[in-house]
Amino acid sequence: MADGSSFYITTPIFYVNDVPHIGHAYTEVAADVIARWHRQAGEDTWSLTGTDEHGQKILRTATANGVTPQEWADKLVADAWVPLLETVDVANDDFIRTTEPRHEQNVQKFLQKLYDDGHIYTGEYEGYYCVGCEEYKQESELVAGTGEYEGQLVCAIHSKPVELLHEKNYFFRTSAFAERLLALYEERPDFVQPESARNEVLGWVRSGLADLSISRSTFDWGVKVPWDETHVVYVWFDALLNYITAVGYGQDDEEFARRWPAQHIVGKDILRFHAVIWPAMLMAAGLEVPRGVFGHGWLLVGGEKMSKSKLTGIAPEQITDVFGSDAFRYYFLSAISFGQDGSFSWEDLAARYQAELANGFGNLASRVIAMVTRYCEGVVPSAGALTEADLEISAIERRATEDSWAAIERLAVHEAIAAAWELVDALNGYLTAEEPWSLAKDPAKRERLETVLAVAYHGLGTLAVLLSPVLPKATAKLWTALGAPGTVQGQRIDRAHEATLGERVSALEALFPRVEVAE
RNA sequence: GGGGCGGUAGCUCAGCCGGUCAGAGCAGUGGACUCAUAAUCCAUCGGUCACGGGUUCAAGUCCCGUCCGCCCUACCA
C-alpha cells in the first residue's frame, strides 16, 4: 500500500531569538509522529526541521550581548533548539540552519533566477518608522497622539511621532500569481488543510494580493541579494526557501527530485506565508508547489493563546520532567483535534496521563505480561480453538491498524490515536470477560487459559507497533518485554496486526508510573 | 473598521451536505471482579445545543440580528 513512495514532511524553522515553549514542541511532535508513521509504513520518508537565524532582531540582540550574530545563533541553536528536539524525542532526518552555505548559496541562485525571469522589480517601500524602536510600524501598532502630538500618529511604545519614510526595496510580484493560486486551491481542495484554514486563505487571495518587499538595506545580517550586495533578503523570503535548499535545490538535482514536494506542517499564524507566498515563489521559479500545507491550531492556556508576554508560556521540560516525553507527545496529539485549537491545563494533562496512559495502556501491558509470567512461566502460549470473542479481538486489531493508517494519511493524528486506542479498551474488556485468573484455577481449562493469554499477548504486540510513533520510549520497552525480535520501530505499522512477536516475555517495569500530583 | 473561528452535559470536546443528533471521554454515583500501576469491567445521574427572530412538514445542523470569547488584518518571525 505505501511501499517505497516518497514522503517529505517539514516543520517551520524556529526563529532562534524566541524562547522554546510547548507551542513549538507541539508542531515538532505532530510532524514527528506523522513522519515516524510513514517511515514505519515503508515509505521513503524524510523529515526536516531547523532554525531561522537571520534578521534584524537577531543582529540586535547579538550586538546587545556583545557577540556576533553568528555566535549568538550558534549559542541559541546549541543551548535551546537542538535540546528541544531531544526533550520531546523527535527523530528528524535533517536539521537546516539558514546560515549554512547550502542554504545561503542556493537562496541566491533562486533569487537570481527570479530576478532574471522578471519576477522581481525595484520599488519603494513606504512605512511609518519609529526612531525609538528603530523599525517600521504597522498602522495597527500606532495610536493617536495626545498633548503636544495631538493629531499625529505616535508609536504605541514610545508615544513619540513616527516618521513616514521611503526606502528602496526589491519586490516580488506576488500579485501576478493570484489566478494560479486560486486555480491551485480549486484543483486540490486538500492543498490547504484543515478546511477552515483553506477558507481563510481563499478569502485573502480573493481580496487581492500585494507584491512583497523582499529585501532590506538598513542592516546586513542576512543573505546578500546577488545583484545588489547593499541589500539582504528579507527574512521570510529567506526562511521559506529552507524547505528546498535542505533537499538539494540548486546543487543536487537527484536528491531534490527524490524528496520534493513536501507536506508542510505549520501553525495557523504563518499560514499566509506558506499557503500563498511560498507557492507563488515556487511557481515563479518553475518548481512544483508543496504537497500540502496543514495549519494546526493554537494551544490555549486559560482560554487564550499561549504567550510569553502573558506569562502563559510553558517550557516543554516542565511537562517532560514530570510525565516524560511519551506523555507529552500523547497528550497533545490525542487530546487535541489536529487543526483545531486546544486547551491545555495541568489538571487535564494529569488526568489523561493517569486514566489513559497509566490505567489504560500501561496497566494493560502490566497485567498481560504478569499473567503470562505467572501462569505460563513466561513462555508465550499458543492459541487453541478460537471463540467468537477471540476472533473479535483479531478483527479489532486489523481495524485499528487500517483505520489509524488511513487517519494518518489524512493528517488526522488524533483520529489515528483514537483508532489504535480502541484496541486498548477492547483488550481490557476482553480480559475482564474471559477471566484468565479464574481459568488458571482449573487445570481442565488449561487450553482456554493459554488461548486467552495468546490472544491478549498478540493484541499487545499490535498495540506496541501501532503506538510506537506516538510513544517511542514506552513501546520500545514493551517490545523488549514481549520478547519480540528486532525493534518496534522496525515493524511495518500498516501491517501491525501481522507483526511477528516472541516466545518468552520478560519483566516489564511500569510504562507510565503513577505521578504524584503536580501543581 | 474589515475578516476568520468558536459559544452543545461539572470539565474537554464529537456532531459532514437539515429529519433516532441530543452524543463521547473524564469527573460523580451504584455494582462486579482481583491478573494488574488501589488498576479493570458493567450500569447510572447529568444538557431550554449563547440569545432573539426567520425559512421548512422538520434546525445545534440553513438565513438575519444581538451578546460573549479568541485570532488575523499583509513584511517580528
Can you lay out the helices and strands and say which pair or pack?
Elements: E1 6-10, E2 14-15, H1 22-40, E3 44-52, H2 56-64, H3 69-87, E4 94-97, H4 101-116, E5 120-130, E6 135-137, E7 142-144, E8 153-155, E9 163-172, H5 178-187, E10 192-193, H6 195-206, E11 212-213, E12 215-216, E13 224-225, E14 228-233, H7 235-240, H8 242-245, H9 253-259, E15 263-267, H10 271-284, E16 292-296, E17 299-301, E18 304-305, H11 316-323, H12 325-335, E19 342-344, H13 346-376, H14 388-409, H15 413-434, H16 436-439, H17 446-467, H18 472-481
Parallel strand pairs: 1-3, 1-15, 2-3, 3-4, 10-16, 15-16, 17-19
Antiparallel strand pairs: 5-6, 5-9, 7-8, 9-11, 12-14, 13-14, 17-18
Helix pairs in contact: 2-3, 5-6, 6-10, 11-12, 12-15, 13-17, 14-15, 14-17, 15-17, 17-18
The structure holds one RNA strand of 77 nucleotides.
Catalytic activity: tRNA(Met) + L-methionine + ATP = L-methionyl-tRNA(Met) + AMP + diphosphate
Family: Belongs to the class-I aminoacyl-tRNA synthetase family. MetG type 2A subfamily.
Domain Methionyl/Valyl/Leucyl/Isoleucyl-tRNA synthetase anticodon-binding: 406-491
